[in-house]
Amino acid sequence: MEEQDKAKLQELIDLLASFRGRHTELVTVYAAAGSNINQLANQIASEQSTAMNIKSKTTRTNVIDALERIIRHLKLHPKIPPNGLAIFCGNTSKNEGQPDIQIWAIEPPQELRTKFYRCDQIFVLEPLKEMLKASGVYGLIVMDRREATIGLLEGKNITKLKHLTSNVPGKYKTGGQCLDPNKTYIKLRKGGKSLKDINIGDEIWALDLKSNKEIFTKVINKWIKKKKEYRNISVSDCWFILCSLDHTLFKEENGNFVEIPARNLVIGDSLITFYDSPIKGTQPIEIIKIEDFKKEIELIDIETEEGNFFANGILIHNSAARFDRLTDEMAKEFYRRISGYVKEIFLDMPRLKGLFIGGPGPTKEEFITDGQIPNDLKKKIIAVKDLTYTDEQGLTFLVDACAEDIASEEITKEKEILKEFFETLGKNPSKVAYEISAVKRALEMGAVQKLIISTKIPKEIAKELAKKAESISAEVYYVSDETNEGVQFKNISGLGALLRFVV
Fold it and tell me: 38 and 8 in one domain?
C-alpha cells in the first residue's frame, strides 16, 4: 500500500470510529473480492424485511433508510470491484430526533477476503485496520529435494499458493554395492544370467528414473568383494535379494523413490519392482521377511551407465557416486520447476516486499544457486532459514523464524530514507527543508521530491502536507520514532523534505 493510500485509509478509519449510534443503527457491509453484487443486493433487501421487526420506530426508520441507501449505491456498480467493497451507512447525527443518514463506500486498497454484514452501535473497522498493518506482502518458499510449498504472508495471514513434489531420491552414504553372485538373476535384452556370469559390456535391465520407464544399460565395471555380514530380504516366497548391509535399494515412500541402505530396511517397507501388466510400470512390493547372517561371504559389485539395475526383479543401484550425479541432476530440474512457479507468482506482484526461503540442510542454498531464480527476485531474498518441515506447516515455521527479519525490514526502510535526509542535510543543506514553514514553502513552489513525515506530527497537518505533495507528484514517507534516527528526526521538527531544486 502506498503511503498516501495508507494515510487516506487511516483518515477514513478515524472518521468512522468517531461515530456511535444511540441504538443499533450503524450498518457495516463487507463484500469480498469476487463476490456477486446481485446476491449482495438481495441480501440487503432481505435485511430490510428483517428490520421491519425492530421495536423502536426511530431505530427501525433509520436502519431501513440506511439499507435503502446501500441498495441504491449498489446499483451504481455493475459488479464488485476487484479488491472488494466496504460500505458504511447509518445515522451519524448527534442530535436526537434529527437523523443524518450518511454513506461511505470504498474499494479497499488491498484485496478484501471478508464477507460480512452487521447492524450495530459502531461501524466494524477491523478488516480495514488489518490492511494498515499489512502494507506489503512477503513470499514464502519452503523446500527440499522432494517437496516444495510456496505461500504468501500478508499481515498475519499465511496463504498456501502452490505445493509441488518430485521423485528425487534422498541421499545416503553408501559403500560397496555387493550381491550374491549365484543367487542373483540379471535380465538381459535376450534371456538372462546369474550375476557371476555378467560381463563388462553386457546390457542389463534397468530403470530410467526421469521417465519411470524400463531400459537396458551397459555394465561398465565389475568387482569381487568379501563381506563379513549380509542380509537376505524376501518380498515373496520366490522373490528375494541377498546383499551386503551397505547395499542400497529403492524404497517406496509416499509415491517417491527413496534410496535406503539394506541395513535400514524393515519388514513392511516396500521395494520397487517392474510389472508388464495390468499396467506397465514400477510397482511397490512389501518386504515379508529379513534374515541376517554374520559370516564371511564372497559377493560381486557391478557398475552400470544408468546407475541402477534390476536384480531378481528388484530395483537397486550400484555406484554411489554415479547415482549421486543422477539424483543431483534430478534435483536441479526440480529446483528449476520450483523457480518457474516462483517467477510466475511473485515476479510481477506489485506489493511484494521480499522473499523468505527455508528448508533442511543445504537444499535451500542449492535451490538459490541452481534454481535459475530471476535476478530481480534474488535481490528480494531477505532471509534463508534452516527448517525441518517443507509442507504447509513449514510456512508457519518459516514466518516464526523470520519474525525479527520482517520487523527489521520495516525499520530498515525508515532508516534508509532518514539516512538520505541527514546526509543531504550535512553535505548539501540547500537541498533540504525542515520545519513546517520551510516545508510548506517548498511544497508551494513544487520543489519537493521526497516529503518525510514523522508519525508524531498531528494528523491534520500531516494530511494537509501529504495532499500538497501528492499534487506535485512528490513521494511521501512516514517514519516512526522507534529508531535513533526517527527520534532525531522528530526532535528537529518531525517534518523534512528532499528538494528537486534549491529554493
Answer: yes
Residues 17 and 104 in one domain: yes
Helix (H, G, I), strand (E, B) or coil at 200: coil
Is the residue at 171 inside a domain? no
Same structural domain, 367 and 380: yes
Q: Hey, how many other C-beta atoms are within 10 angstroms of the C-beta on 315?
A: 22
C-alpha cell at 423: 546526509
Virtual CA dihedral for 399, 402, 404, 410, nearest 10 degrees?
-80
Count of H-run helices and E-run strands, the chain: 12, 28
CA distances from 365 to 41, 126, 155, 370 (A): 52, 39, 27, 8
Q: Which DSSP string corresponds to 356-393?
A: EEEESTTHHHHHHHHS---HHHHTTEEEEEE-S--SHH
| CATH code: domain of residue 459 | 3.30.1330.30
Domain that holds residue 457: 407-499
Q: Output the domain CATH number for residue 119.
A: 3.30.960.10
Cell triple for residue 78? 455493475
Q: What is the pLDDT of residues 248-288, one digit of tens each?
A: 889 988 888 888 889 999 999 999 998 876 677 888 999 99
- Other Cβ atoms less than 10 A from the Cβ of 25: the count is 27
In a domain, 331, yes or no: no
Q: Which residues of 205-238 are buried (b: 16+ CB within 10 A; e: fewer)?
A: bbbebeeeebebbebeebeeeebeebbbbbbeee
- Among candidate residues 133, 155, 187, the one where a domain is terminated: 133
Same domain membership, residue 126 and residue 146: no
AA identity, residue 371: G
* Residue 488: DSSP 8-state: H
- 63 or 174, higher pLDDT: 63
Backbone angles phi, psi at 92, to 5 degrees: -105, 5
Peptide bond into 278 cis (omega under 30): yes
How do residues 228-256 score in pLDDT, each as one tens digit? 999 999 998 778 999 988 888 899 888 88
Q: What CATH number should be reported for the domain holding residue 234?
A: 2.170.16.10
User: Residue 459 CB: number of other CB atoms within 10 A?
Assistant: 12
Give the bridge partners for 151, in sequence order. 140, 160
**338 belongs to a structural domain:** no
Domain for residue 431, yes or no? yes
Whole-Å CA distances, 465 to 12, 229, 457, 460 = 17, 82, 11, 9
Total domain count, the chain: 4
